[in-house]
Amino acid sequence: MGSPLRYNVLVIGAGMSGLAAAIRLAHFGKKVAVLERHDRVGGLNSYYSLNGYDLDVGLHAVTNFAPRGASTSALSKIFRQLRIKPENFDLSPQKKSRIAFPGVTLEFTNDFACLEEEVAKNFPSQKDRFRKLVEAIRNADPYHPSAERRSAREAVSSVISEPLLAEMLLAPLMYYGNAMEDDMDYRQFVIMFQSIYLEGFARPRRGVREILDSLLNRLDESGGELKLESGVREILVENGKVYGVKLMDDSRIECDSVLSSIGLLETIAICPESSRREKKPAEGKLAFMESINILDSSPVELGMEHAITFFSNRENFSFRKPEEPVDVNDGVICVPDNFSYGEPLNCNMVRITNKADYAYWENINPMENLPRKRDWHSRSIEGAADYMPDIRDKIKFLDVFTPRTVRRYTGHINGAVYGSPDKVWSGGTALPNLFLCGTDQGFLGIIGAMLSGISIANQYLLK
Amino acid sequence: MSKSQLRSIVTDIIKSIAPDEDLSSLDPEKPLRAQIDLDSMDFLDIVMELRVRYNIDVPEADYPQLNSLASTVNYLMPRMQGV
Lengths: 463, 83
What we know:
The structure holds 2 protein chains of 2 kinds. By secondary structure, chain A is of the alpha/beta class. Chain A folds into 3 domains: 6-89 and 206-282 and 421-461, FAD/NAD(P)-binding domain; 112-200, no CATH class; 285-417. Helix content of chain A is 32%, strand content 22%. In chain A, strands 1, 2, 9, 10, 11, 12 and 18 form a 7-stranded mixed beta sheet that branches. A 7-stranded mixed beta sheet of chain A has the order 7-6-14-15-16-13-17. In chain A, strands 3-4 form a two-stranded antiparallel sheet. In chain A, helix 1 (16-27) runs parallel beside helix 8. Chain B is mostly helical. Chain B has a single domain (3-19, 27-80), classed as ACP-like (Non-ribosomal Peptide Synthetase Peptidyl Carrier Protein, Chain A, Orthogonal Bundle). Chain B has helices at residues 3-17, 32-35, 40-54, 69-76. In chain B, helix 1 packs across helix 3 (40-54) and helix 1 (3-17) packs across helix 4 (69-76). The A-B interface holds A 28-29, 68-69, 71-72, 76-77, 80-81, 83, 85-86, 458, 462 and B 16-21, 37, 39, 41-42, 44-45, 48, 51-52.
């Protein structure tokens, strides 16, 4: 088998997709290592501790929550494929969430009938049309290679004749997994619709750490390796094939194949010039500012009773890079206490997410960074005033991260959490033994990411 | 290897893939997928587990022979000699 440092597969990036792929490969006897440049795993869904608080980045909630026994769901596919016991993720369902636009609110829970009733009540003329849309979504197979590529906006407005309802249905799906400005790939729309509305939200009491710990345990049990602080400087190519990688410290590791989860452009950037594609994919532009607010009292007692609120102050929801540093006119508010845990969480946390302009935050004078963050955080609470109380005098801990933070910790160009709008659904590249999984393969969201790693591993690396 | 040993080899594999399925009342003559919830990904995993655990390669053309528990056992019988 050659030198002991030769692997069957090197996975670049220890996020959800890379870890899931590595578990599959190791489970079936492949010699595999996951190379992570950061000092911890998680990628876009990671964690940190500050001032004694354990905090999550990324994950507000796990999507695709289905009750035990519903084995056709994407979530139960993941449990089976990774041989993880469902209880290990310790998922507790949300209480309720809502989509709130000027004058209209649609509440939804993990019981789809709730959203159906809300649509019928608020948009009586759309009741049957909504049913028709849902029927088409239930029958679609977005994971199929030949699935039709079309505009989600067109698909929705060809059935739903009330533009406000179309906007309201699209907003959460775009916020939780869309790399494209203004529109969405219909396949991605179907995946997100199923994962958020037809299934639903849940959260581990310990947040993303619970999920990452389960994945790491399985990787370890299966014999897969994890190398932290092992950023890849270059993918080594000879005679049109990958034969290894060079790490940041210039050491080399040889392998039969590489599976990259770090993004398409990000992967191209570490491939030799000669092996790059002719056509450069587009850069992602959608980036976010998020604030983590820990209050001195319960947000639930202040009237915040939804797990997740997707709001917009405009009837026309605009999903694009804002002109100003942060677009505070729409956003997502997450209250982790509003899930039905066995024992109440009472972490008193409120997270607020808004779209932000990467360039502004990247180029800011470092002396200005903190005051600007404070200023935009304050405006972000003002922007959400119709949907939450003014919590500014109740905050005992605050941390704000911007697209610059995302870029620094995840390596994503422009801090674009959902990557390039040009997805590579096949997972293949110009090189025969270099594959892509994760964000830029096309299945987004936390469950989509794991499925992406699993399906690319199955398709190409477990043959 | 006896039929009953082979049968438990197969049910152990299924149990490892789908721990939430009840296998105690499986009718060995009936198609597995009519009795328990196994999708195509789960089915492929049975094939892969056979390869990793017992070094048995099931070519795609033979997949129909893994239809029921009994047919799977019959299929594996001559191939598991000496394992």
